[in-house]
Amino acid sequence: MSRMGSLVVVSLLVLGGCSVPSLEDLEAERGVRITVDYSPSFKTGCIVMRTQDEANPANFTEQTVEGSALSRQTPPLELRAFRRGDWSKKVRVTLTAHEQTCAGKAVDRVELVGEAGRSLAAVLATPDADGDGYVAILGSNRGGTDCDDTDVMNSPGQPEICDDKDNNCSGAADETLTRVAMFRDRDNDGVGSESTIHCVPAAGVTGYVSVGGDCKDDDATIAPGKTDVCDDKDNNCDGATDEGSDKNWYQDGDQDGSLSAATGKVQCGQPDASYRQRFQSEAFDCNDHDGNNTPGRVESCDNADNNCDGSADEAFPTKGTSCNLPSVSCAGTWVCTGNQLAVECNARAPRLFYPDRDGDGDGDQNATVDEVCANETPQVGHVENVHGDCDDVDPAARSGLTEVCDAIDNNCNAGVSDEPLSCGGTLKDVVSYHLSSGSQDWRTVAVGQGGYPVWVAGRGGKLAVRKAAHQKFESYSYGDTPNPSPPDGSPPLNTNNCGDHNWTVSWVDSQGRVFLGGEGGWLAIHGGTSAACGPGTLPTTQNLTGMVGFESGGVTTIYLSDTDGRLYRWAVGASGNPFTELNDNNNNHYGLHALREDFMLAVGGSTGPDRQRFVSYAVTTGTTPAGTPTGHTSTPSNVNGKATAVWMGDADKACAVGDGGAAWRWDGATTWDKTDAPSTFDFTSVVMRYDAQSPQNPLNEQCYMVDKRTGGFGGKLHRLTPYGWAKGPDLTGSLANVPLNDIAITAAGDLWIVGEDGRVFHYPEP
Predict the structure, then answer these.
(1) The domain at 2-13+21-143 falls in which architecture?
(2) How far is Cα 328 from Cα 322, in angstroms, rounded to an integer?
(3) How far is Cα 217 from Cα 417, in angstroms, rounded to an integer?
(4) Which of 14, 218, 259, 758 is the most exposed place for a label (fewest CB within 10 A)?
(5) CA angle 134-136-141, nearest 5°?
(6) Which CATH class is domain 431-760?
């Protein structure tokens, strides 16, 4: 059973007749309230609401909102869907929006299911932005038939006019109009340039004309027949610019009445008030920067051509010849006197210059002075008189500097004892129960991103950590003798060690966990807690020599190198085999470093006679990760011994070290330049200090390295600046007498150094 009618957009029921309805009839006729939101611009169209008995589809009603009823409305509509007494309680309501009329194209439809007495809501997409009565095409057979809902001139049924638009939404523009020969007029000056076939434009439509010949159709001031004016343009299209106009202007800079030819400008208008045009036959000024030089002046002794005759100081013939004065080692020259009326000998005592190799403005305090006479040029890289620099290859040290926290004598005051108390300590050995055993040969040190924790590891499974500043080291070493009460207050030995392995490389993640690599390809992870050490799968039986890690999106990735020239990727915590061999080459890798995951530097040596080798890797990730190597060269090409360590300070800055005191700087491409070291001891580790947030930091690009010299002297800490080998920081004390194996640096410049016989050094250490 069905019934049709117009929707009444009200919220009150109008009851007719005088009989009192039964409770059953009231329940049956109780409607469903529906809130319908739609595009406010939808004023010409129709909204149809079909209400259907959910239990019997043959029972339905249809109601509409259209015409003036719709045009007067603003969304949302508040509607009520009525049900008959013989219907079930649940009804299905279908709301359909039609374009133009109720018989027009359905532009959107929403179906709702509800029960009597409940409220429903629906949204219909009916955009008519230009208000032409046609709804925009929305795609997927939704929306109306308006092909351009931003232009009221474009919609189905519009007559086609000549305006380069699809007025009637047929899919073509101007398709029914007659086309004739015309010209494209892009600057709308009434004269076109490019010939074309086009319909005659409708009134108000520009861009096409019947007259051609415009030589510059993007400038309305240029067209045949225009009057040529002085504006640097060919206004009349005759091939000439500003014909007949005087465009030459000159300055009288010294205000002596004569113009300078060198200041000439060619333009239409006066450049500014200091310019004027030249009179006929007017002579130019020979020096427009000096009012004493102009045609007709009397010549003075002032090194100038006062009268503009082409000669200077011609009235003083001895001027410029050599002369000497008693007790003055430098010869002089006869020069003009101060009153410019005579000449005098200008011999003067020499100027004193000192080498300034680091360019900090302070000369080397120990260098020989270079005497420079007035007619001589000082040597490049020298400064005058100032020579208080105690380390002339270090821009962080010179006389007058403020002492800062870097273990360097910044102010050249004979040491670092005057460093601020806020530094918190000096460079010295760390005294801690779990570090100092002679059986503890520390081979690697790694620090957390904020400076702590600090992990040290070495041969025989030795492992210890300082978790925060001023704390004692905790031990997780294999084989150490337990002591429940260490005498210095250190925590007792932890039993959860990582086994009897010789650890050689390490890295600390943001959680403070240390990742260890060692001889025989052994790997381990320790969190510094009571949890057991988690050894990793062995990717190789070769010794691991390089380790660098990255964290992104909660995923930790470690890259490893070994003595067989392999590069591995370790996806920590990945299912299955977490290791991927990215590359294998003929080099023996002994060092690896990177600042980002897609580019790495590795150093090492060749099989057979030791020769250093350098290589960069372009690393790709994804389902098939790989490392593509690029071989680098060194200058000189080879020295005896292998490269043992590398460190990147920035994307194009790195240092490497090796056997025999070899040290190299990377040029940021594929070349490594060797710097001669002051000794031939074998370097073991290197770091570079670089503060990307402070490019002017004098410590930037400085490389710190340690060596493994023996014979009772012990390894030393060395510092290579871009200018040479600098002084300090120095390891002092009786414990600085063993080979050193590794060095680490924090972003703030804190240093950690480890070596044989339990030696650990730190700056700043209280």
Answers:
(1) Sandwich (2.60)
(2) 14
(3) 78
(4) 14
(5) 110
(6) mainly beta
